[in-house]
Specification:
2 copies of one chain form a homodimer. Chain A is an alpha/beta fold. Chain A folds into 2 domains: about 35-270, Queuine tRNA-ribosyltransferase-like (TIM Barrel); about 275-370, no CATH class. Chain A has 14 helices and 16 strands. The first copy, chain A, has helices at about 50-55, 65-70, 75-80, 80-85, 100-105, 130-140, 160-180, 195-210, 225-235, 255-260, 270-280, 315-325, 330-355, 360-370, and strands at about 10-15, 20-25, 30, 35, 60, 90-95, 105-110, 115-120, 125-130, 145, 185-190, 215, 245-250, 265-270, 280-285, 285-290. In chain A, strands 4-14-13-12-11-10-6-5 form an 8-stranded parallel beta sheet. In chain A, strands 1-2-3 form a 3-stranded antiparallel beta sheet. The first copy, chain A, has a 3-stranded antiparallel beta sheet with strand order 7-8-9. The longest helix of chain A has 28 residues, at about 330-355. The radius of gyration of chain A is 21 Å and the shape is globular. Chain A starts with 7 loop residues before the first strand and ends in a 9-residue tail after the last helix. The interface of A and B includes residues 46, 75, 315 and 325 of A.
């Protein structure tokens, strides 16, 4: 694990718009394109930290909104920071808290200076400003810090999108000032503008003028069809500097990752793999498999006998079905691990394909597998 | 791991009534006194099988009642048996199902031949006889099989206790006939008789006449004070052959284990350590610690810095408190592991103490630690 004193991004190669890169941080290296498992409240739900590391993840994400409410940023700092608290020694990215304030908190009220809201847990009053978000993320000990922005659900009127994009730009400036010297950490700006290309262009250009260690595309995967999301990425990514990592926030399902990497994205995060695991769904090369389904009840076959992940081969589908039906913790634990492992396997496959100049073929073959779907019902092969 | 083709018990030494022994089975060796983690529905709740093995457990227990309802004994058999289904290659003991029929099932109706009941899950009608219980346990692939018995809650009238004890003896005979040739497996008889010493004496004597590979003491830890339980053990254990393992069913808390080993018990099982873990309680050399308690909120100290269990030292109490308060799966996972590890550590300590002839001192010192209680509140040391 090569480490550096600075945050650095190196573009190692391309295959069309798809990029193969490497982020170096004092806490470790992140091979890109990378998927970051989400550790909302300081734990990737259902996995031990060493399991997260063993499945190939090199960075995890923490949610500022959740952590500022519980256990509280000052408390995390007093415990030595988020890395020490959760026993994760690799890099950590934290979001700004803004997205969850708007989606989870009660009575969120936005003004020029910041956003006031009440906790969804106990109703307590809180306020987040660009400066305070940086301060909280610094207390948490984040290696990659996100600016506070205003994220708009789609569809939205152009006027609404423009106002949010412009406010986000003003908050980007304030975030950069508050962030100060990087000292091995990175601050990422966030491109807003919804599905309006002119707004995206302006947002990207002005963020690049301000200058960040990386650039996120925000305000996608918020209700729009996948085709629209891809169009926005296709428009926005080329306007970001080749020399810096590009992060598509909150995305997504495996097919979203394939399509976004094809359009030049380097980093992803999403709660979907662990949430799907808790609901009995497994991601595999056959696509998504619903283990609640009675077709698995008597199936002695493993989830995927060709998987390099031992958890996908050691138990029968019938046993996984049984665990899920009984609500046994092990079912949620194993399926969360299986899903994150599949995501990491997919990212590793994409990285290798970009290196070999075979990304398009890899993407096609992967989609063919998903479309073919699951094995025939046991006994009906 | 020395294995044999037969089920064997060897008494290696004693320290007063406390016994140090070894059970050999074709699936592996069990050093006694032993605590068996309970894998109710084919999984020790919250732990991977390798974690169960790594914490020192050499045998696990499966519940016939739960498994016959879900996924069904025939289905388990079709999947290759319980060992293969759950990926546990050590010995497995299954209970007869009788205890849970009386405590969990609906409309249980007992007659001379067996017991009829309805599933607590879906209301479906089922029937369990001594022969059918053996058949189910054989389908599950149990290494140690328990006879069906009638277990009476305490306090109970002598007449009720006597009737249940005598029925259990008739069922013991039928169980032995149904079990047939052992082939490396073992059938255990169960002493009943409640808190009535004469009944316990008769039950033990007649069971020994029938002849089993091991003898359980049933009908304890069913509502009576600990002192009464100890009295019943003290009376019953000496009436069982020294040459055979003695199993106290469904017991207990750490202090119960100390007292029962002191009175000649070799084997235990209980859901308590994993259930307590899911409720935020940790068993330690300081006694039981309630991690929900706000006193841990800012405590950077590990649960027990001297524990050999990495999970008891790698995280702060504040983090464990946070996980429990947030209902995070990792909290339940880790505390279940910590509790089972402490139980195994306690059993290993008892085994070593018996070998060294220092059991009484070990028991005293352990109790002194529990009585001293937890560390002073952080900051008030």
């Amino acid at each position: 694990m090569a480490t550096t004193l600075d945050f650095q991004f190196k573009l190692l190669g391309t295959d069309g718009p798809a990029r193969r890169g490497r982020i170096s941080t004092p806490k470790g290296t992140i091979e890109t394109p990378a998927f970051m498992p989400v550790g909302t409240a300081g734990t990737v739900k259902g996995l031990y930290p060493e399991q997260v590391r063993d499945l190939g993840a090199e960075i995890v994400l923490g949610n500022t909104y959740h952590l500022m409410l519980r256990p509280g940023a000052e408390r995390v700092a007093a415990l030595g920071g988020l890395h020490k608290m959760m026993d994760w020694d690799g890099p950590i990215l934290t979001d700004s808290g803004g997205f969850q304030v708007m989606s989870l908190a009660k009575l969120a009220k936005l003004d020029e200076d910041g956003v006031s809201f009440r906790s969804h847990i106990d109703g307590s009053a809180h306020r987040l400003t660009p400066e305070h978000s940086i301060e909280i993320q610094t207390l948490l000990g984040a290696d990659i810090v996100m600016q506070l922005d205003e994220c708009t659900r789609l569809p939205a009127d152009r006027g609404v999108l423009e106002k949010a994009m412009e406010l986000s730009l003003r908050w980007a400036v304030r975030s950069k000032t508050a962030f100060g010297k990087a000292n091995g950490r990175a601050l990422f700006g966030i491109v807003q503008g919804g599905d309006d290309k002119n707004l995206r262009t302006r947002s990207a250009a002005e963020l690049v003028d301000i200058g960040f260690e990386g650039y996120a595309i925000g305000g996608l995967a918020v209700g729009e069809p996948q085709a629209e999301m891809f169009e926005a990425i296709e428009h926005t990514a080329p306007q970001l500097p080749k020399t810096h990592p590009r992060y598509l926030m909150g995305v997504g399902k495996p097919d979203d990752l394939l399509g976004a990497v094809a359009r030049g994205i380097d980093m992803f995060d999403c709660v979907h793999p662990t949430r799907a695991g808790r609901h009995g769904h497994a991601y595999t090369r056959f696509g998504v498999i619903n283990l609640k389904n009675a077709r698995h009840r008597d199936d002695p076959r493993p989830l995927d006998e060709e998987s390099p992940n031992p958890n996908a081969t050691r138990w029968s589908r019938a046993y996984l079905h049984h665990l899920v039906k009984c609500g046994e913790m092990l079912g949620a634990m194993v399926l969360s691990q299986i899903n994150l492992a599949y995501y990491q396997e997919l990212m590793a496959g994409m990285r290798a394909a970009i290196e070999n100049g075979t990304f398009a073929r890899f993407a096609d073959q992967t989609r063919v597998g998903w479309r073919k779907g699951d094995l025939p019902v046991y006994g009906e092969e």
